[in-house]
TrEMBL record:
<dbReference type="GO" id="GO:0004373">
    <property type="term" value="F:alpha-1,4-glucan glucosyltransferase (UDP-glucose donor) activity"/>
</dbReference>
<comment type="pathway">
    <text>Glycan biosynthesis; glycogen biosynthesis.</text>
</comment>
<comment type="similarity">
    <text>Belongs to the glycosyltransferase 1 family. Bacterial/plant glycogen synthase subfamily.</text>
</comment>
<dbReference type="GO" id="GO:0005978">
    <property type="term" value="P:glycogen biosynthetic process"/>
</dbReference>
<dbReference type="InterPro" id="IPR013534">
    <property type="entry name" value="Starch_synth_cat_dom"/>
</dbReference>
<dbReference type="Pfam" id="PF00534">
    <property type="entry name" value="Glycos_transf_1"/>
</dbReference>
<keyword id="KW-0320">Glycogen biosynthesis</keyword>
<protein>
    <recommendedName>
        <fullName>Glycogen synthase</fullName>
        <ecNumber>2.4.1.21</ecNumber>
    </recommendedName>
</protein>
<feature type="domain" description="Starch synthase catalytic">
    <location>
        <begin position="2"/>
        <end position="228"/>
    </location>
</feature>
<keyword id="KW-0808">Transferase</keyword>
<dbReference type="InterPro" id="IPR001296">
    <property type="entry name" value="Glyco_trans_1"/>
</dbReference>
<dbReference type="Pfam" id="PF08323">
    <property type="entry name" value="Glyco_transf_5"/>
</dbReference>
<feature type="binding site">
    <location>
        <position position="15"/>
    </location>
    <ligand>
        <name>ADP-alpha-D-glucose</name>
    </ligand>
</feature>
<comment type="function">
    <text>Synthesizes alpha-1,4-glucan chains using ADP-glucose.</text>
</comment>
<dbReference type="GO" id="GO:0009011">
    <property type="term" value="F:alpha-1,4-glucan glucosyltransferase (ADP-glucose donor) activity"/>
</dbReference>
<feature type="domain" description="Glycosyl transferase family 1">
    <location>
        <begin position="280"/>
        <end position="436"/>
    </location>
</feature>
<keyword id="KW-0328">Glycosyltransferase</keyword>
Length: 474
């Protein structure tokens, strides 16, 4: 079975968030299961491209309105990621360093989608499934089924995965002429709230759509930034499949980024050595419970609540707890966290930016990982933490609800709270400090977590079963 995954991100080529981790892992596990899975993404002028060898496998030209674009399809020659990787390069449009943030971003992703369809159409390929990820590839199902240029692909099933339903990629009808020849009687399939909405169009046109956790599928019907009714009426097409993690990359026994390796049997001593190295770097006391945060400093992650919650916790508990944060984003939040670092240098430290190696070291060395998310479709950070024996402290939402059981339950291993609020975060911190003081329970929880299976093996099989279910419709 030949599968094309379309995505704006893929780890380790280009990453902003969890989308990249999923697209960098799912095709590998599908390939190991016997499928011929490939990832197609825009070309970015980044280290991965310069450090690896690519062959040009196709060249062509297409139109973006009246603008003629020349494009190349580049294939990584060794399949070193465990699957075929293709990059679409368009000089002046898809050859830049950053993934997002350009004023012509809409044009970038429209051109990406058109170039992909032109390539597989003109090269005579007929995939068994085209799997689109988030709004950056959301126009592909519509174009496959309602553009006269791609009639040959009209019977190819499409699956659309929603990694974050808050972002739609919407734009005005004045850009309609960027699209190739379409059936104008079908333009309602592009429309939502008076504009062209790629995410809404994909949900309408794809054969099936998935979300990255079962609970998030339910949440979209009442919280999806204006698409609630659409998800309600299209709910029969939806399927919630929990993301997995790449257990080859995230393995405390072999992780090359850790100063000390460990397994479940040696988790207590192994984590302590990693904690000591981490605390030495950031001038923190390794004898105290270490609560950490890793992620983008944006509202949906609840990061704006952290400065007040940390300050209140430090005032309540004095010198009994340490905090370490890794992330970047909102300038006001960054400034407030840096102020905390200056005010409480013995108990709080901050790394503004992102460092993949440091993230691994935090998962291994921390006692707790805090995720006060307002929106968390699946969440991977809590799964990485669990894999490394670090107790997750999470708000009960989205995939966090699906993956973390509170320690109050007999089989629990995490701390959950209901509201994205300073009060609930501080209560969770108090619970964490109490839990940390119970050495035997912490040892039990760490071993329990490291024995849990959140690998892609299970999730990849669910996607394969979904693909197989679409074949009889051909």
């Amino acid at each position: 079975m030949r599968i094309f995954h379309l995505s704006a991100e893929c780890y380790p080529v280009a990453k902003i968030g969890g989308l990249a981790d999923v697209v960098g892992a799912l095709p590998k596990y599908q390939t190991q299961a016997g499928l011929q899975a490939a990832v197609v993404m825009p070309y970015y002028n980044r280290k991965f491209v310069h450090d690896n060898v690519f062959d040009t496998v196709f060249q062509g030209a297409t139109l973006l309105g009246t603008r003629r674009l020349y494009f190349e399809i580049l294939k990584e020659t060794t399949n070193k990621l465990g699957f075929e990787l293709y990059l679409i390069k368009i000089p002046g449009l898809l050859d830049r360093e950053n993934i997002y943030g350009y004023p012509d971003e809409k044009e970038q992703f429209i051109a990406f989608q058109i170039a992909f369809l032109d390539w597989i159409n003109w090269s005579g390929q007929t995939p068994d499934i085209v799997h689109c990820h988030d709004h950056h590839s959301g126009l592909v199902p519509f174009l496959m089924y309602h553009s006269s240029l791609y009639k040959r692909l009209a019977n190819v099933p499409t699956v659309f995965t929603i990694h974050n339903g808050q972002y739609h990629g919407a734009f005005g009808w004045e850009k309609l002429d960027y699209l190739p020849e379409i059936d104008f009687y079908k333009t309602g399939l592009l429309d939502w709230n008076g504009g062209i909405n790629p995410l809404a169009s994909a949900v309408k046109c794809c054969w099936r759509f998935t979300t990255v956790s079962p609970n998030y599928l339910q949440e979209l019907s009442y919280s999806s930034n204006g698409l609630e009714y659409l998800f309600y009426i299209e709910r029969h097409k939806g399927l919630g499949i929990l993301n997995g993690i790449d257990t080859e990359v995230w393995n405390a026994e072999t992780d090359p980024m850790l100063p000390e390796h460990y397994d479940a049997a040696g988790v207590t001593k192994g984590k302590q050595k990693n904690k000591e190295a981490l605390c030495a770097r950031f001038n923190l006391d390794p004898k105290k419970p270490l609560i950490t945060f890793i992620g983008r400093l944006v509202s949906e992650k609840g990061s704006d609540l952290l400065p007040a919650a940390i300050e209140r916790s430090l005032r309540l508990h004095g010198d009994k707890v340490n905090f370490l944060l890794l992330g970047a984003g909102d300038a006001l939040t960054e400034a407030a966290l840096m102020q905390l670092k200056d005010t409480y240098p013995a108990n709080c430290n901050v790394f503004v930016g992102y460092d993949e190696a440091l993230a691994h070291q935090i998962y291994a060395g921390a006692d707790f990982l805090l995720m006060p998310s307002r929106v968390e479709p699946c969440g991977l950070n809590q799964l990485y933490a669990i894999r490394y024996g670090t107790v997750p402290m999470v708000r009960t939402t989205g995939g966090l609800k699906d993956t973390v059981i509170d320690v109050a339950d007999e089989d629990g291993y995490g701390i959950r709270f209901d509201e994205a609020s300073v009060d609930d975060i501080c209560t969770a911190v108090s619970r964490a400090i109490t839990l940390y003081s119970d050495t035997k329970k912490m040892q039990l929880l760490r071993k329990r977590m490291m024995g849990l299976d959140f690998s892609w093996d299970r999730s990849a099989k669910e996607y394969i079963d979904l693909y197989e279910s679409l074949k009889p419709q051909l």
